C-alpha cells in the first residue's frame, strides 16, 4: 500500500481529469476512469464530463447503457458488438454503440469485481 498526501492526490486527480476533458473517449482506460470517478466522488470534487453524458457513473448506469443498446439492436450486447465489428460503421449510431457498449461492459465488470473499493482513509 502507498500513502500519499491528500493535497498531492487531489493534484493528480485534477491532472487526470484534464485528460477526460481534452481527449476522451479516445484512448480511455475503463479501470482508470473508474478510479478517477470514484475518487472524485469520494473527495467531493468536480466530476468528469462523462457523468453528465451518461447521467451518472455507476454499475446501474452502465447496465442501462447495455440494455439501451440491446433494445435498439434487438440482440444481446455481445452479438450487437460483434455485428458492428464485422460490418463496420454504417452510421454514427453504430460508432457510438460500439464505443459505449465496450466501455459499459468493462465498467459493469469492474464495478462487480471491485465493489466500490477505491479509497480508504488512513490515520496520519
Question: How does this model look, in words?
Answer:
The protein has helices at residues 6-23, 30-42, 50-54, 59-73, 77-87, 92-114. The protein has 124 residues and is an all-alpha fold. The protein folds into 2 domains: 1-50, no CATH class; 58-117, no CATH class.
Whole-number radius of gyration? 16 Å
**Share of β-strand residues:** under 5%
Helicity range of the residues?
Answer: 55-70%
Extract low-pLDDT stretches: none
Determine the mean pLDDT.
90
How many helices does DSSP assign? Answer: 6
From the spread of the alpha carbons, the general shape counts as elongated
Number of domains: 2
Give me the strand/helix succession.
Answer: HHHHHH
Structural class label: mainly alpha
**Major sheet size, sense and barrel closure:** none
Count the beta strands: 0
Instruction: Report how far apart the termini are.
Output: 14 Å
Descriptive keywords:
single chain, 124 residues, mainly alpha, 2 domains, 69% helix
Concise structural overview:
With 124 residues, the chain is an all-alpha fold. The protein has helices spanning 6-23, 30-42, 50-54, 59-73, 77-87, 92-114.
Strand and helix map with partners:
Blueprint: H1 6-23, H2 30-42, H3 50-54, H4 59-73, H5 77-87, H6 92-114
Helix pairs in contact: 4-6, 5-6
